[in-house]
Amino acid sequence: MSLLELQHVHKRYADDAGERTILRGVSLQAGKGELVVVWGLRRSGRSTLLRVAAGIEPADAGTVRFDGRDLAASGERLLGEGIGYCQKTLRFADGHTALDHAMVGLLSRWVAPAKARVRALGALERAGAAHCARMTRRELSAAEAMRVSLARTLALHPRLVVVDEPVKGVELSERDPILGLLRTLADEGVTVLASTGESTGLSQADRGLVLGDGELRGAPPRELAPVLPLRRLRREASG
């Protein structure tokens, strides 16, 4: 059974210009330890897809399940309890230092401060951001801020990490290490669902999917195909 499963998901938004359909019957599955990356152009709906997959926004139609449980079911609160949504923005209200930001999710769940500090430090180290612990938001580079945001998510011990555009705004020299970190998390058994608007964001993925006109397709455009490593095929061949 897939850890994450979306079945025929539809999502619409209404504004002054009228109703706009963002997702049209989208279906998606992601298994344990799989890194799935969704590529799409700007305003393609990739961010909406990730928010729906994480349970932040409800689907207008269709079903979203995590470990077999319907995210829309009454009483299900899996965001932060198995599902980790990585918010790239570090808000001033969440703390002064990177360590504060890594601790905030734990403290909001009544984890004792001393224990929260230990877990947050461990998460920062796991995310390659241990050196950032005492740094403020303004002192962090885009790559460091991304790592701290991932640490905040990892501190909650999620089984699924959802991260929207992890390399957006990150310097070219820092992009591969960030994508390598996501690959490492998947290899450790964490399912990762990410999005990207750039072809380089597809590297390291087990599967690259394309979102366009509200529909999700299983094959990349021809111009993007060369960047997709055949990790799944290599695993099967080695077995």
Give a structural overview.
Helices cover 29% and strands 26% of the residues. It has helices at residues 46-54, 98-107, 113-126, 142-154, 172-187, 231-238; strands at 4-15, 18-30, 35-39, 61-66, 69-70, 83-86, 160-163, 191-196, 207-212, 215-217. A six-stranded mixed sheet has the order 6-7-8-3-9-10, sandwiched between helices. Strands 2-1-4-5 form a four-stranded antiparallel sheet, with helices on one face. α5 links the parallel β7 (160-163) and β8. α2 packs across α3, α2 packs parallel to α4 and α3 (113-126) crosses α4.
Please state the average pLDDT score: 85
Task: Sum up the overall morphology in one term.
Answer: globular
Could you tell me the radius of gyration in angstroms? 18 Å
N-end to C-end Cα span: 21 Å
Question: How is this fold's topology laid out?
Answer:
Elements (H helix, E strand, L loop, with lengths): L3 E12 L2 E13 L4 E5 L6 H9 L6 E6 L2 E2 L12 E4 L11 H10 L5 H14 L15 H13 L5 E4 L8 H16 L3 E6 L10 E6 L2 E3 L13 H8 L1
Parallel strand pairs: 3-8, 3-9, 6-7, 7-8
Antiparallel strand pairs: 1-2, 1-4, 4-5, 9-10
Helix pairs in contact: 2-3, 2-4, 3-4
